[in-house]
Amino acid sequence: MAKLTWHGHATVQLDSDQGFVAVVDPWITQNPVHPTKQLPEKVDVILVTHDHFDHVTDAVALAEKTGAKVVAQPEVIAQLVKEGLKEEQGIGMNIGGTVEIGPLSAHMVHAFHSSQNGTPAGYIMTLDNTVVYHLGDTGLFGDLQLFGELHAIDYALIPVGGHYTMDYKLGALAAKMLKAKKVIPIHYRTFPLLLQDANQFVEEVKRVSPGTEVVVPEIGGTIQL
């Protein structure tokens, strides 16, 4: 059974039964709420949803430390190469595409946000027969319902902090549209502008999507998927 570790904000680590490790949107060393600010020792692949600082700052350093491949849109890869990423470590892809890296399948879908380079995205990933959708940074949009129909999503990682992304009310509607078995709130608690705890999201999901379970890991905490 795969494991998921929430490193705070939008940084999520997935570990397979066989020790394969994927990290999405690495921002650890400068994250004010991360308990250790230490990068993982072993990572096989890094996936970047968009290149705002709070999603990509540690990508090059983590790739250099671990030798991990980096998956992102070509424009983001090109920028990371300028910042020191080895070209052979970059895997450019785009919305609608799927990459297979070891036991991980990652399908890139669109998100509604902004990005310095390329366009914002999310990843619908399959690892150890578990489907995990990382929405990236996004507002609410109608295709979330389509994604829920096309993919049997076990876990959806939903930004709920507000201001830069959906707030907890829209996040709860996203949970309903996706029909995910379980949802995990992300992109909150980090800055004063953002939602500071998940309680309102938990209660709103109970109200609008009572069949959906909300899982709230601690920052740095790990759950079994």
TrEMBL record:
One of its GO terms (molecular function) is hydrolase activity. Residues 8-187 form the Metallo-beta-lactamase domain. Pfam families: Lactamase_B_2. InterPro entries: Metallo-B-lactamas, RibonucZ/Hydroxyglut_hydro, UPF0173, UPF0173_UPF0282_UlaG_hydrolase. The keyword Hydrolase applies. The keyword Hydrolase applies. Keywords: Hydrolase. SMART domains: Lactamase_B (SM00849). HAMAP family: UPF0173 (MF_00457). Belongs to the UPF0173 family. NCBIfam families: PRK00685.1 (NF001911). This is UPF0173 metal-dependent hydrolase BAA01_08520. It comes from Bacillus thermozeamaize.
